[in-house]
Design brief:
heterodimer; A: alpha/beta; 22% strand; B: 404 residues; 2 domains; two-stranded antiparallel ribbon
C-alpha cells in the first residue's frame, strides 16, 4: 500500500503546491491526470523519492521514504520503485541485457540473467538482447525501459507520459504491456499522462487541478 | 556490474576522444620516460667510467676534449705527449698509479688502446676467457667488441689508422685475440687493449727489427723519441689535488684535466637541453590533463540524464562520483602505461641506431623513479576528474529529469 499524506511542495519563492491525500491499494492501477504545469512531474518525483517535499510524508510498503538517508533512499527506490519515462533513456554505452543487469546491481541485488531473459521474453524483445540502444526503434526502446522498470519486481511501477512520443499502435501496445507487467509482477501501477488515448483503460483516477 | 566496468564501457562508447586523451598523456609520459632513462644512463656511464681516475694528463688543448678522448673514448685526442715527460710525472711521489694510453688505431670503429697492466688494475678487469695481452700484436678485447665484431680467442684482425675510418688498414701486422674480458658495464666493454709497443710498431713499419723486446715497459725506458697520447693518474693522497694539476700545467708542456670537473661542466651543458625538454613534457601533461577534464566535463553534460537515470535505478551519489573518477583514472593510467612502454621502445630504438658504442643507450633498464610517473598519471586523472565527479555527486536529479 502506498500513501501520500498532507504533502506540500514549493519551488523557491513560488506559490505552494498542495496535493490531495492519496491512498493507493497494492496492485491497483491508477491514472494521474493533469494539465501541463499542474504539478504532475513534481508529484511523480515526490512519489518516487527523487524530490523531497517541503511538508508531508510518503509511505511505501510501510516505509516513510523521506525518513531514510540519501543512500538508503536510493537503494529503496532501486528495489521497490520502477520508473518508465516519457523517453526511454537507456545507457548508450551498454547493450540491452547490460542495461537490465545494471538495474539489478544498482539495487544491490545479485545478477540474475534468467530474470533478464524472462522479462525480455515477456516484452517480446529477447532477440535484441545484445543490441545497443541506438540500434533499436523508439517502440522497442520503450519496451526495454519497461523491462528495466520491472526487472526487480517493484512494489510500485510509475510511468511518466509513457505514450506521448509514440504513434497509436505503439501507444496501445506499450499501455497494454504496462498493465500486463504490473499485473504479472504484482506491482501497483501509476500512469501520469495527458494522452486521451490512455484514459479509458483505467478505473481509478487521481486528478490534479 | 561494477563501477569499473561501467566506466570502461562508457570510455569505449567514444573511442576517438578517449584515444586522443590517452595519446596526449602517453606522449608526455613517453618524453619524460626517455629523459629519465637517458639522463640516468648518461650520468651513470660518466660516473662509472671516471670512477677511479683523479686526473688525465695530455697535450695542451681543450680539457673537455682530453677527458672525452681519454676516458670516454668519444672525441679525438688533443695530441701527443713525449714519453720521457710522461714517465717523469709517473714517478712523482704524489702519484699512486699512472696508466699510459696510446691511441690512434681502430678496428671497424672500435678503438685500439695501447696500454699496460696498470690499465687492468685501474678498471679491475677480469677475463671471460683466454689471457691478457702479453707480446706485441696480442690483443684482449672487451665483451661488447667480442659480441659486435664476432671475435673470439685465437682470431686475427687488422687495425686501421685513425679513430673511426677503416680506409687505411695496416696490412702488415695482424692482431691476434688472446683473451676476452668479462662485461664491466663501462667503456672497457667496447675497447681493444694491446701493449703500447704494438701501436708504435704499427706506425713505423720501416724500423722493423729495431726493437725486438717483448716487454713494453722496457721499450718505454729505451726510447726517448716515443710519444704517448695521455696518462690516467690516480693520486696517492687527497693532498695531491691541490698541487699536482698546477704543477703539470705550469712546469710542463702538458695539461692536466680533472674528469670530475669536466663531467660536471659537460652535464651542465647537456642539462639546459634536458631541462627544456622536461618543461616541454610537463606542458604536454598539463594540456593532457586539461583535455581529459574537458572531455569528462562535456561528456557529463551529455550524460547528465544517464547519471540521473542511474540514480533512479538505485545508484547512490557516491557511486556516480566513483564512476566519473574511475573514468578519469582509466584514461590517464592507460595513457601512462602506453607512454612508459613507448619511452622504453623509443630509447631502445635510438640506442640501436646510435653510432657511438661508448654512449649506447638502452630501453631495457627499468628505474624505480618510473613509479613516480605512474603516481603522476594517477594524480592527473583524479585532478582532471574531480570537478566533473563532484558535479555528478551534487546533481539534482529531479531538476534534470523534469527538463526533458
Amino acid at each position: 500500500m502506498i500513501s501520500l499524506k498532507s504533502v506540500t511542495h514549493r519551488y523557491d519563492q513560488q506559490q505552494d503546491i498542495r496535493f490531495e491525500d492519496w491512498q493507493i491499494d497494492a496492485g491497483s492501477q491508477w491514472l494521474l491526470l493533469g494539465a501541463s504545469g499542474s504539478g504532475k512531474s513534481t508529484l511523480l518525483h515526490i512519489l518516487t523519492g527523487i524530490l523531497k517535499p517541503v511538508q508531508g510524508a510518503v509511505t511505501i510498503k510501510g516505509t516513510s521514504i523521506y525518513d531514510l538517508s540519501s543512500k538508503e533512499l536510493d537503494q529503496f527506490r532501486g528495489r521497490n520503485i520502477g520508473i518508465v519515462f516519457q523517453r526511454p533513456h537507456l545507457i548508450k554505452s551498454l547493450n540491452i541485457s547490460e542495461n537490465l543487469v545494471i538495474a539489478q546491481s544498482f539495487a544491490k541485488l545479485p545478477t540474475n540473467l534468467k530474470r533478464v531473459n524472462e522479462v525480455l521474453d515477456a516484452l517480446g524483445i529477447a532477440d535484441k538482447k545484445h543490441a545497443y540502444p541506438d540500434q533499436l526503434s523508439q517502440g522497442q526502446l520503450q519496451r526495454v525501459s519497461i523491462a528495466r522498470a520491472v526487472i526487480n519486481k517493484p512494489a510500485l511501477l510509475i510511468a511518466d507520459e509513457p505514450t506521448s512520443s509514440l504513434d497509436d499502435n505503439n501507444a496501445a501496445v506499450v499501455l497494454e504491456l504496462l498493465m500486463q507487467q504490473s499485473g504479472a509482477n504484482q506491482a501497483t501501477l501509476v500512469v501520469a499522462t495527458h494522452d486521451k488515448r490512455v484514459k479509458d483503460a483505467f478505473k481509478h483516477t487521481y486528478e490534479l487541478s | 556490474m561494477s563501477p569499473i566496468k561501467i566506466s570502461w564501457k562508457s570510455l569505449w562508447s567514444k573511442p576517438l576522444s578517449s584515444a586522443l586523451n590517452m595519446m596526449l598523456i602517453a606522449f608526455g609520459t613517453g618524453i619524460l620516460t626517455i629523459l629519465l632513462l637517458a639522463s640516468n644512463q648518461i650520468s651513470q656511464k660518466l660516473d662509472n667510467n671516471s670512477k677511479d681516475i683523479d686526473l688525465v694528463v695530455g697535450a695542451k688543448g681543450s680539457p673537455l676534449q682530453l677527458i672525452l678522448s681519454s676516458i670516454y673514448y668519444i672525441d679525438f685526442p688533443t695530441g701527443n705527449i713525449p714519453l720521457k715527460a710522461a714517465k717523469e710525472l709517473s714517478r712523482s711521489p704524489l702519484v699512486k698509479r699512472a696508466v699510459p694510453l696510446a691511441l690512434g688505431d681502430n678496428y671497424n670503429g672500435t678503438r685500439i688502446v695501447g696500454t699496460d697492466s696498470n690499465f687492468v688494475a685501474l678498471y679491475q678487469l677480469k677475463l671471460e676467457n683466454g689471457k691478457f695481452w702479453n707480446t706485441d700484436f696480442e690483443a684482449t678485447i672487451g665483451a661488447g667488441v667480442a659480441q659486435s665484431q664476432q671475435l673470439k680467442v685465437g682470431d686475427t684482425f687488422y687495425g686501421a689508422h685513425g679513430l673511426s675510418s677503416s680506409s687505411d688498414v695496416h696490412k702488415s701486422h695482424p692482431y691476434t685475440v688472446s683473451g676476452v674480458l668479462e662485461s664491466q658495464g663501462n667503456v672497457t666493454d667496447n675497447l681493444i687493449l694491446t701493449n703500447i709497443a704494438s701501436v708504435w710498431k704499427m706506425h713505423d713499419d720501416h724500423e722493423d727489427d729495431h726493437h725486438q723486446h717483448d716487454n713494453a715497459e722496457k721499450q718505454i725506458e729505451n726510447d726517448d723519441h716515443k710519444e704517448l697520447t695521455s696518462l690516467l693518474i690516480q693520486y696517492r693522497s687527497p693532498m695531491s689535488v691541490a698541487i699536482f694539476p698546477r704543477m703539470v700545467n705550469e712546469t710542463t708542456n702538458m695539461q692536466a684535466a680533472s674528469p670530475a670537473q669536466e663531467s660536471t661542466r659537460l652535464f651542465s651543458l647537456i642539462g639546459v637541453g634536458v631541462e627544456t625538454l622536461q618543461w616541454f613534457a610537463v606542458l604536454i601533461m598539463l594540456i593532457a590533463a586539461i583535455s581529459v577534464f574537458v572531455n569528462l566535463y562535456n561528456s557529463l553534460k551529455e550524460r547528465k540524464y544517464d547519471l540521473a537515470i542511474m540514480r533512479t535505478l538505485g545508484a547512490s551519489r557516491g557511486k556516480l562520483f566513483g564512476i566519473v573518477i574511475i573514468e578519469g583514472i582509466i584514461l590517464t593510467f592507460a595513457g601512462t602505461i602506453i607512454g612508459v612502454a613507448l619511452g622504453h621502445f623509443a630509447l631502445q630504438f635510438i640506442g640501436h641506431y646510435q653510432e657511438s658504442n661508448q654512449a649506447r643507450l638502452t630501453g631495457m633498464i627499468f628505474l624505480q623513479e618510473e613509479i613516480y610517473l605512474f603516481v603522476a598519471g594517477l594524480a592527473i586523472g583524479i585532478f582532471a576528474a574531480i570537478i566533473p565527479a563532484i558535479q555528478a555527486y551534487r546533481s539534482n536529479i529531479s531538476k534534470i529529469l523534469s527538463k526533458n
